[in-house]
Amino acid sequence: MSQYLCPRRPARPVPVAARRIGAQLAVLRLDANLDVGEAAQVGRIRPEGLLAAEYGEEVLGRLARNRLLNAYRATEQQREDLASVLRILRAPDQDWTDDGRGHRRRRAAIEAPAQLMRIWVQTKFPAILRTPSYARVVDRHSGSVDERDLAAATARSEVFAAGRAGRAVVLLEEPFVRRVVGSRAVMAEQLAHLLHLQDTGLIGLRVLPAAARVPPHPPVVQLDFGSGRGRLAYGELELCTVYHTGPSQLDEFQQGFAGAWKRTLSLGESRELIAAAITHHQAGW
């Protein structure tokens, strides 16, 4: 990219408006920590054209300018997400609440590097397991529909479903399997999605029968990042995400999950119960 770093001086007078817009583009590119070649690639323009625009020699079309601005903003968001991950992992023995706008997008960034997830489903499916229809119903009920958050959650779910993420073990409480969320069609689609994830080997899925007696357990998702890389757990609330990093608390969560897992139905029995629930939901359409 060195051939683009020393542009020639404009050969003709530069309009003031073009110079001002070009300077703004240059500042945003530098803030996003992108070199000219990278920025030109995401903007789908020639590097020479981007430099000419930054120096005010050319005026970019609206589409190219919007592509650049969106790319710069996305890069900035990714940097903020990474900072959130590091801040949580470097704060052991503390609970940390992320109640800022976009907390679900940041949570998706935190989930991404996890090698193993332990998910105990009690009241609603976590975002990483949701179908788009189920996600929209849950957001609408909470009154906090955010299209960008919904898009991020859907993208994260699709990445997981495509097998480009760590594995998960999922524990479903029997009453929740029979519960209707949104509509019977939405619930049937969501349960079928879980069986598909199980069939592809992405999740280990078991049902905890209603008759099983287990100690109360908070509906948290446990994330294990691998040997020497740490672990944490989070609780997914409507308007915020609460993270837990204390070793004793994480041990307690893990032991509670392991104890409940021993009382679940077998793999075949769990699948039969979920398949029967899908048929029941479909019959009520």
How would you concisely characterize the structure shown here?
It contains 11 helices and 7 strands.
CATH architecture of the largest domain: 2-Layer Sandwich
Helix/strand/pairing class, anyone? Answer: alpha/beta
What would the principal axes of the Cα set say about the shape? Answer: elongated
Radius of gyration, CA atoms, in whole angstroms: 24 Å
**Poorly predicted residue ranges:** 1-8
Major sheet attributes: 7 strands, mixed
Mean of residue pLDDT values: 78
Strand content: 5-15%
Number of DSSP-assigned strands: 7
Q: Helical element count? A: 11
Question: Could you state the order of secondary-structure elements as H and E?
Answer: HHHHEHEHHEHHEEEEHH
**What name is given to the CATH topology of the largest domain?**
Endonuclease, Chain A
CATH first level of the largest domain: Alpha Beta
As a percent range, the share of helical residues equals: 40-55%
Lateral arrangement of strands in the main beta sheet: 1-7-6-5-2-3-4
Work out the count of structural domains.
2
The N- to C-terminal Cα distance equals: 59 Å
Descriptive notes:
By secondary structure, the chain is of the alpha/beta class. It folds into two domains: 7-77, 434 Repressor (Amino-terminal Domain) (Orthogonal Bundle); 91-283, 2-Layer Sandwich (Endonuclease, Chain A). It is built from eleven helices and seven strands. A seven-stranded mixed β-sheet has the order 1-7-6-5-2-3-4, sandwiched between helices. A hairpin with a 4-residue loop joins β6 (231-236) and β7. α1 runs parallel beside α4 (62-89), α4 (62-89) packs across α5 and α5 (103-111) packs parallel to α7. The longest helix is centred in the N-terminal third of the chain and has 28 residues, at 62-89. The N and C termini lie far apart (59 Å).
